[in-house]
Amino acid sequence: MERAEVSDAHVLDDDVVREVLTAALAGGASFAEIYAETRRGRGVGLDDGRVEDLVSGLDQGAGIRLTLGKQTAYVSTNVLTRAALVEAAELAAAGLRGSERAQVADLSTRQPERTHPAAQDPFAADGVALAELVRRAEDAARSHDPSVRQVTVRYADIDQALFLANSEGHRHTEQRVRTRLVVQVVAARDGEIQTGYQGPGGAVGHELFDDHPPEKVGAEAARKAVLMLDAEPAPAGELTVVLGPGSGGVLFHEACGHGMEADFVAKDSTVYAGRRGERIGSQLVSGVDDATDPGGWGSYSFDDEGAPAQRTVLFEEGVCTDYLTDRLRAIELDLPRSGNGRRESYAHLPIPRMSNTYILPGDEDPQAILDDMGSGLYCEELGGGQVEPASGDFVFGVAVGWLVEAGELVRPVRGANLVGDGPTVLARVDAVGSDFDVRQGVCGKEGQGVPAGLGNPTLRIDRITVGGTGS
């Protein structure tokens, strides 16, 4: 399969761009934008020893957005001809009427400060090579232990070529490549069934497998599933909890990060609204959203409105420092644009979204954090959860947990849930390790899914409610 290049049809001629933007502004909007993309992707699925699907797809199109104050009109099309784009612009103009007489400024190409090129183009690997890749992951998982009953492997890559221009004269192109391998394992023994999961990915090509060989990914998913077969019911009550590196990133993302997105702040529907400059968390906690992280799963060069990718500090030694903004919310809240206007595709409006949201490492030795812990719960991996942004309240399942006694991991436990709220948990962090690890996810919001990186060092929370069925 040929790779989409930035010289393909998604890059529009200046005269076409000016005509489209002029037509869009004719209804009286103050701002107009065209976002075009060509997206190629492939997926390979293996289930129970059989490669069941090897699919490839191509999608292209453009979205025309108009704004006037807080009003927005948006029309998308999957046809990139001049006539189709002008028609979409005229439809958008009909949906937003104002008295502005904005003009299209001279277009000027902006160059990114950061790029994330793929060192090993994933599209250089054909279908046979990809089928072999997923089989290698499955073989490693099945050979880990006889209790492994089912192995599901999913490989995916994407090559996204973007073009954006607006009536203020901004114009840029960007190439985004992402690769991911996900393995899920079901293990069973004596009537007990448990699952394990491993899913590395990045804004990279097949160099992903230098650090995450398929055999390692498959074996790690199997290890977790088999480990939890011997797990006992988790204790319940208020306990000291240590979050392993990488595992706590999803908690920070959900319980804190979403509440820092400026659309929630503008609606005053988050516990973090109006608290910039206020100490919320422990002095040990500093957190960032970093779209510039080289090869990060959620990284990019420009956001989907043309703002350069940035590293935004959300918490500095426990103090709430900034919010994640898109263009509209930055204007509404009189804040700088943080480069977090993101969209799933040309068919969607950009909204404030996280990129790679990390709690930064500290100075403490991770083993010493456990040694000083006494008894409690060690969370090797968190599972799914629910969060209410208005209050920060959350419930997170623990996918892989350990009972800790005298600073030692003594036995695995299952069925644990962490219950609390974001500000309280941030305030109760009393140790931050010098290590760091990341996880990858697809974050859903308002019907849109975007890649989001998660990361943290070893963290100790001195008290948090644990729901469990053990004594």
Fraction in helix: 10-25%
Overall average residue pLDDT: 95
Overall strand count: 24
Strand content: 35-45%
Distance between the termini: 57 Å
Largest sheet: 8 strands, mixed
Spans of at least 5 consecutive residues whose pLDDT stays below 50 are 1-9
* Silhouette: globular
Which class of secondary structure composition applies to the elements? alpha+beta
Radius of gyration: 24 Å
Description:
It is built from 10 helices and 24 strands. A hairpin with a 2-residue loop joins strand 18 (393-405) and strand 19 (408-414). The protein is α+β, with helices and mostly antiparallel strands and 471 residues long. It starts with 13 loop residues before the first helix and ends with a strand. Residues 1-9 have low confidence and may be disordered. The radius of gyration is 24 Å and the shape is globular.
Task: Give a topology summary.
Elements: H1 14-25, E1 31-47, E2 50-68, E3 71-77, H2 82-94, E4 108-109, H3 127-142, E5 148-166, E6 170-189, E7 192-198, E8 201-202, H4 208-211, H5 214-229, E9 232-233, E10 237-243, H6 249-257, H7 262-266, E11 287-290, E12 311-316, E13 319-320, H8 327-333, E14 341-342, E15 351-352, E16 356-359, H9 366-371, E17 376-388, E18 393-405, E19 408-414, E20 417-421, H10 422-427, E21 429-432, E22 437-445, E23 448-456, E24 459-467
Parallel strand pairs: 4-6, 9-19, 10-17, 16-23
Antiparallel strand pairs: 1-2, 1-5, 2-3, 5-6, 6-7, 6-8, 10-24, 11-12, 11-16, 12-13, 14-15, 17-18, 18-19, 18-20, 20-24, 21-24, 22-23
Helix pairs in contact: 1-2, 3-5
